[in-house]
Design a protein that fits this description.
single chain, five-stranded mixed β-barrel
Amino acid sequence: MSTTASGETLMRGRRKLRTGVVVSDKMQKTVTVTLTRRFAHPLYGKQVVRTKHVHAHDEQGAKAGDTVRIMETRPLSKTKRWRVVEIVERAR
């Protein structure tokens, strides 16, 4: 298997990447990330906002309010299915 500079393997298939905001960092090595998606309503065309909370494994040290990029991974616990790849923007 070949690896990139960040240590990620290229042979892992298509994994979902999402960008969200950390809303809780109270756990050890786990953060809660809010994923927000906006789309037009199929019939009326008005913008609709849907949010989802996911738990992500965090070795980067993300804090509440940070914008992070997360990647889908194998189940790490009962609720953790994502991991933090990078911190895009620190909270102010």
